[in-house]
Amino acid sequence: MQMSERAKRWGVLPSYWSYQGQLTETSPETEEAILKAMGASGENPPRARRLKLPPDACASAPNRAWGWAVQLYAARSRDSWGIGDMADLRRLAQWSRKQGAEVLLLNPLGAQTPILPYEASPYYASSRRFRNTMYLRIEEIDGAEQVAVELEPLRAQAQALNEHRLIDYDEVFRLKTRALEAVFKVAPDPPKLGPWAHSKGQPLRDFATYNALAEEHGAAWRSWPAELRHPKGERVDAERRRLTHRVAFHIWQQFHLDRQMARAAREIGLITDVPVGFASDGFDAWRWQDLLAHDMRVGAPPDEFFREGQDWGLPPFDPWKLRRAHYEPFVEAIRSATTHAAGIRLDHVMGLFRLFWIPTGTGAAGGAYVRYPASDLLALLAVESRRAKAFVIGEDLGLVEAAVRRRLRQRGALAYRLLWFEGPTPDQWPKNSVAAVGTHDLPTLAGTWNLSEPDHRQHRLRQRLDDVTHAPDGTPPIDVAATTYAALAASRSRIVLASMEDALSVEERPNVPGTTTEFPNWRLALPQPLEAIEIGEDPLRISRVLREGRSRKRP
Q1: H-helix or E-strand spanning residue 65
Q2: Which helix (H) or strand (E) holds 28?
Q3: How buried is 166 (Cβ within 10 angstroms: 0-12 exposed, 13-18 middle, 19+ buried)?
Q4: What number of helices (H) and strands (E) belong to the chain?
Q5: Helices 477-489 and 462-469 sit at what angle, rounded to 10 degrees?
Q6: In 3D, which of 165, 155, 154 has the Cα closest to residue 76?
Q7: CA neighbor of 165 nearest in space, from 518, 506, 449
Q8: Is the dihedral of CA 220, 222, 227, 232 positive or negative?
Q9: Which residues, in sequence order, are CB contacts of 53 under 8 Å at separation 6+?
Q10: Phi, psi (degrees; rounded to nearest 5) at 494
Q11: Which domains does the chain have, with CATH numbers?
Q12: Per-residue CA distances from 240 to 88, 236, 350, 534 (Å)
C-alpha cells in the first residue's frame, strides 16, 4: 500500500512503528479524509514565509531543586469551598517553601464553560488562555466583606462538601456562582480592573461574550443560532451589548483569578501545565475554528495498555493554517501559562512534531500521524520562555523518537525521567531532566507497592520499587516512598518532583486514561486537609528526605 506523494507533501506520515515493532501504514481512506480536512485542493501545500526567529535556548531551570506535584482541586483546607483554590495554593506554597521546596507543579488551570454539568477534566478545558473560576477563594475578593451575611449560608454548604472525598463539581459551581454574583453586585469595579482588562484586549471580551452566550444557549456552540456560531457572526456584537452585565461579570472573575494567582506565585515557583489541546465545544474551538481541521480528533495509536488506541476528543489545528496565522494560538497558550509561573510543562510534547489524527467515524486504530512545523514551534517556545524567564519541561514519555529528545535538549527544555519507565537507576539519569516516580495518569507508589492498583497489568511496576529500595514485603508504603525519593533526590536531575499522593500513601491515581465513568477521574481530593498535611509526620518526612538529598552536591 503506497501513500501518494501529494499526501506526504501535505504532511501526512505514510506509516509509524507500532508498540509491537511492526510498521503500520496509513490507509488510503485515512489519507483522503485527512487531506479533505486540510482542504488540500492542490498537489502542494500553500507557501508561507518562514519566521525569522533566534536560535536561543529556553530560560534556564534551577539546579538541584525539589518540589511537589499537586492537583490543585484536590488540595483542600478546612476553609475550602469543597475544592482546592488559590488561597489553598498560597498556603501550600508557604508551607512547601519553609520545608525547602522551590517549585510546585500544578494541573492545568484552564477555564471551563460555566454551565452544568461542570467539566472536571483539566485536560479538556474550554480555554487554555483563561483560567477556571472554581479556583477563586470567595472571601478574598474585594467586596466580599460587604455581603458577608449573604455569603455565610453558602460558605457553610460549600465547606460541608469537604467532608466528602469525592469533589462535587456541580454543587461547588452552583454555590460559588451564587456567591460570586453577590460580590459582583456590590463591587463590580475594583481598582485596576479597567487597565488590566484593556491589556488583555479583544480575546478577553470574546471569552466573556462566549461564556454569556453559553449560559443562554448551552455549551454546544455548533447548535447555537447560525449568527452566533462564529466570533465574527453578525449578531455577536449585538448580543455582547445586550449581555453587557454578564460579560462584565466574566471579565471581573478573570481579573480576580489573576490577582489571587499572583499572590500565590510570590510564595514559590509555580510550574503550570500546557495541555496538548482543548474541548471541541469550548471557547478556544469557537474562537479558532477557522484554523482547525474539522471532522478530526487527536488521540494515540494502539499500545500495550490500550489495544484499540485512544481517542482524546480534541480538535487538531491544521498545521498549514496555523503557520499562516503566525502560530498565534500556540503563542497565546504559552504566554498564558508563563504568567505568574517560574516554569511550564508541555503535555505530550510530541505534539510539537506530530499529532495522531483520527477521522470522524473511525476508531483510533484507523488514525495516522500528521507532521507539524517543529522548528518554528520550538523557536517560538524558546522566545516566550526567555521573555517570561520561565523554564520549560517537555513531557517526552511513551514512544518518543530519539531525534525529538535531541532537539528538545538543544533548545534547553528539560526531559522527564520517571521511575516507572526508566531502565537505569536514578543516579544514571541525565542532569537536564525532571525526576519523578510517575504522573497523574500512572499508578501511585502505594497502589503499586500494595498491588491495589486496579489495572493488574501495571503490577509489574512493583519491580522498579524492588530494584531501588530492596524493601521486603510488608514494608509500609511510606517507608518505601522515603527510600525511593531519597534515590531520586541523589540523582543528577535538575528538579525532583514528589507526588503529594505518595507522601500520603494514597492508592488511587488522579486519572485512569481511557476511562470516563469507571473511575472518579479528576474528582478525588487528598484524604487529609492542608492543616493536617502541614503537621503530618509522613509529608514532613518526604520533605526532609528531599531537602537533605538535594543539598548534597554531585559532580
Answers
A1: strand 65-70
A2: helix 28-38
A3: exposed
A4: 19, 16
A5: 70
A6: 165
A7: 506
A8: positive
A9: 376, 379, 380, 383
A10: -60, -40
A11: 72-106+109-265 (3.20.20.80)
A12: 34, 6, 38, 46
Helix (H) or strand (E) holding 479: helix 477-489
Contacts of 226-231 with C-beta under 8 Å, sequence gap 24+, read 229/286, 230/286, 230/289, 231/206, 231/286, 231/287
pLDDT tens, per residue, the chain with 555 residues: 556 889 999 999 999 888 888 899 999 999 999 999 999 988 889 887 778 888 899 999 999 999 999 999 999 999 999 999 999 999 999 999 999 999 999 999 999 999 999 999 999 999 999 999 999 999 999 999 999 999 999 999 999 999 999 999 999 999 999 999 999 999 999 999 999 999 999 999 999 999 999 999 998 999 999 999 999 999 999 999 999 999 999 999 999 999 999 999 999 999 999 999 999 999 999 999 999 999 999 999 987 767 788 899 999 999 999 999 999 999 999 999 999 999 999 999 999 999 999 999 998 889 999 999 999 999 999 999 999 999 999 998 876 788 889 999 999 999 999 999 887 789 999 999 999 999 999 999 999 999 999 999 999 999 999 999 999 999 999 999 999 999 999 999 999 999 999 999 999 999 998 788 889 999 999 999 999 999 999 999 999 999 999 998 654
- Residue type present at position 212: A
Interaxial angle between packed helices 86-98 and 244-265, expressed in degrees from 0 to 180 and rounded to the nearest 10: 10
- Cell output for 210: 462566549
Q: Which run of H or E residues covers position 368?
A: strand 368-371
3-state secondary structure of 66: strand
Distance CA 305, CA 190 (A): 51
Q: Which helix (DSSP H) or strand (DSSP E) does residue 417 occupy?
A: strand 415-418
Distance CA 320, CA 290 (A): 12
Determine the Cα–Cα distance for residues 35 and 212; give it in Å rounded to an integer.
Answer: 36
Is the whole model's pTM more than 0.90, yes or no? yes
CB neighbour list of residue 116: distance below 8 Å, 6 or more residues apart: 170, 173, 174
What residues contact residue 538 under an 8 Å CB cut-off, 6+ apart? 478, 481, 503, 504, 505
| Cβ atoms 180, 250 nearer than 8 A | no
